């Protein structure tokens, strides 16, 4: 009974705290998205190629969506002729240091860890994008007909929730449907305000993220109650360099949702997991999971995909080492 109490207490504490953080950040993101259109940002990226990696990394911070929503944006950038360096920085930054991720890291680990995590991942995005522009692989991006051939079917993701929700619902009148449709055609439907669009998007984003938060809180609660501290310390504890490398390598193929990972890792750290392996696992798992690699392949050519995965893996290892021995 004591273990169930511990599990329930951990679930309520973690789930409640993260729900508040996600709600606030979702609203802020909705207003930011409404007043800073992504289309304008994409066009600016084409006009300032000299600062492309920096702008791409910053743009990624403003895109708190999953990879399925990031890839269509990347396709738009490729179609407009944005350089691979800018695209690469965006692809690294978007899943690793967007506002949702930073808010969750802050809610769980505090300001110092969040600031260090942001510095590591943001610099990695800039450096990774800059390095790719200095190699023969800088043209390894699909454009024009290549994108049309590999085009993914449109879906109503969280990033598109506002537009999808805004579509008028078709209804059938039971009496004189022709007259009713003519009358409706002459009536101008009121357009939603920016505030309404922002709040609608915030609600859609909140609903999309919360199931993973609650699942992560549940796993966190069960782990806090039933997972042996000795087992955690044996395999990923201490200051073993190999544990950091292993965590980074394991993280890359995993589909590690940040909403689920952070609550769980908080418990594992409390039970003896090193901070280095924990951060290596977060960076590797959220930066380049197998589903994301598959989606990115729709935009990047094989050599660029290899470069993308290599940058994420190197960032995970370096970030883990810094968190273990420096920070």
UniProtKB/TrEMBL annotation:
UniProt topology in membrane: Multi-pass membrane protein
GO CC list: plasma membrane
Keyword Membrane: yes
Transmembrane segments annotated in the record for this chain: 12-31, 51-75, 87-109, 115-133, 209-229, 241-258, 278-300, 306-326
Entry keyword annotation includes Membrane: yes
Pfam families named in the record: ArsP_1
Record key words, sorted: Cell membrane, Membrane, Transmembrane, Transmembrane helix
Annotated localization: Cell membrane
SUPFAM superfamilies tied to this protein: MFS general substrate transporter
Family statement drawn from the similarity comment of this UniProt entry: Belongs to the UPF0718 family.
PANTHER family per record: PERMEASE, PERMEASE RV2963-RELATED
Name the UniProt record assigns to this protein: Permease
Organism in which the protein naturally occurs: Paraglaciecola arctica BSs20135
């Amino acid at each position: 009974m004591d273990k169930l109490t511990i599990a329930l207490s951990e679930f309520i504490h973690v789930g409640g705290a993260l729900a508040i953080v996600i709600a606030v950040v979702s609203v802020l993101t909705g207003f930011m998205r409404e007043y800073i259109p992504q289309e304008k940002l994409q066009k600016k990226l084409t006009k300032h190629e000299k600062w492309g990696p920096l702008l791409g990394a910053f743009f990624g911070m403003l895109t708190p969506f999953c990879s399925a929503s990031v890839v269509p944006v990347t396709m738009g950038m490729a179609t407009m002729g944005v350089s691979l360096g800018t695209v690469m920085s965006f692809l690294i930054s978007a899943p690793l240091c967007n506002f949702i991720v930073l808010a969750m890291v802050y809610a769980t680990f505090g300001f110092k860890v969040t600031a260090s995590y942001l510095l590591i991942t943001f610099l990695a995005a800039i450096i990774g994008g800059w390095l790719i522009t200095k190699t023969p692989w800088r043209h390894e991006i699909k454009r024009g007909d290549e994108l049309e051939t590999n085009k993914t079917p449109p879906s109503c993701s969280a990033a598109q929730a506002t537009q999808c929700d805004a579509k008028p619902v078709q209804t059938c009148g039971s009496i004189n449907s022709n007259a009713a449709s003519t009358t409706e055609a002459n009536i101008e439907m009121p357009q939603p305000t920016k505030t309404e669009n922002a709040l609608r998007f915030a609600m859609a984003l909140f609903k999309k993220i919360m199931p993973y938060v609650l699942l992560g809180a549940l796993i966190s609660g069960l782990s806090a109650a039933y997972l042996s501290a000795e087992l955690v310390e044996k395999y990923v504890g201490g200051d073993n360099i190999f544990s950091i490398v292993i965590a980074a390598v394991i993280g890359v193929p995993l589909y590690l949702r940040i909403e689920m990972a952070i609550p769980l890792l908080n418990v594992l750290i409390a039970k003896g997991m090193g901070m280095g392996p924990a951060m290596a696992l977060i960076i590797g798992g959220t930066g380049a999971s197998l589903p994301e690699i598959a989606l990115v392949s729709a935009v990047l050519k094989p050599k660029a995909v290899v470069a993308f995965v290599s940058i994420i893996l190197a960032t995970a290892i370096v970030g883990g080492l810094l968190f273990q021995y420096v920070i």
